[in-house]
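Tutorial, part two.
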Amino acid sequence: MKKKAKAYDLICLGGGSAGFNAARLAASFGRKVAIIDGAKELGGLCILRGCMPSKTLLYTAEMLHNARHADRFGLIVKGAKADMPAVHARKQQIIGSFADYRLQALTTGKFDLIRSYARFLDAHTLELADGRKLHAKYILIGTGSKVSIPPVPGLRDTPFWISDDVLDLDFVPKSVIVLGGGIVACELAQYLSRIGSKVTLIQRSPNILRDHSDAASTVVQKTFVDEGIELFTDTKLLQITREKKGVAVAFQHEGKTIIRRAAHLFNALGREPNTAGLNLAAAGVKTRPDGQILINRWQQTSAPHIYAAGDCSGPAEIVHIAIQQAELAAHHACKRKGLKPIDWTQLLNVVFTDPQLATVGQLERDLKAKKIKYLVASYPFDDHGKSILMEAKYGYVKVIAAPKSGRILGAEIVGKDAGELIHCFAVALALRATVQAMLRAPWYHPTLAEIITYPLEELAEQIKR
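Running the prediction step on this input gives:
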């Protein structure tokens, strides 16, 4: 007799930020839920190999950088260097505590945790790696992303690091060539440079951090060059070759062929959705050519009972977005009332380079594309009291507002602790606050946050006129 597939109201594929939060929420509504995750370690990309380990190491590198440049403050700090085994051990301890907490939540939740990989047999049936079959009324795909290997000549034939490897280093590499100029590439290139590696960063686009404004990326580029990173932008990669003492990368730049050599190669050319092994076609789930799952405003795929959230569906590979998407999907699948789709005009983004780069809301390019009128004002960090005394002079604050009402539309901050300061504007956007309303709040002197008032005051004058 054929064994009947075990049935669930909701099955979540992946136990990371998206899958865990969807499962937790649906279970709280009394639904029968399962999470399927076959990874060796549970916890998801953010905890194990993304946000938390990288920010732990970036902060360590910032402390080392400040110690090495203590003379700026009239201090003498001799011999500051990274004790890499200790740095690695501290990172492992911190990440271990986060991972243990998530593992406890996964194993004690009001849902089943199935340690396996799965693939679709049809729109409602999943087959586990051991052949068992599960049936679900609703399914959420939250399988995340993986490092991509673009068709660069010689790349697949040359040993290279990915971000996982860089985050797990317990020694200072002599030299590293970084391929790419996105967030991961830039954050970890600066980390490697600050712990003592000779770093060459090669970016194909005209600017690093190409998803941000030219002005913002230029500030970070200047910082990198000032700190000794060899930076090439607007390049074409020609050939990567394995050599006896490391690797050689040949590329075109400003009409010339240039070759750079290093002991190690770091492939940071991007990530791609981790969906190839799911057999999505059997479920009627459509994807873009790169494997990213197509979704509507409720996170539904082309098969309406199947949802997707997080890196596998986009459009933003950000943890709090993955959680928002997953919770929206769970609410929708559970027929909860009063739902609203994610408001992408409030998108918040932070790059943890030093200086940090942070944006929220609609930026100038967004408003220009929509032909929406706006006012804009900015103010530099190098003319602000607190940032000057902190030797934090790189960058600026830019604020964008509606011309008549003064309502805040967006903000861009490049500078010291931009990732913290940007939340002043995140709250303003959520409350639909105006320039005038923000100026009515008290701003303490001298603080970094006080710099926000200068572009606000300029906008207030423009609105009066």
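The chain has 15 helices and 21 strands. In part three we will examine how such features are distributed along the chain.
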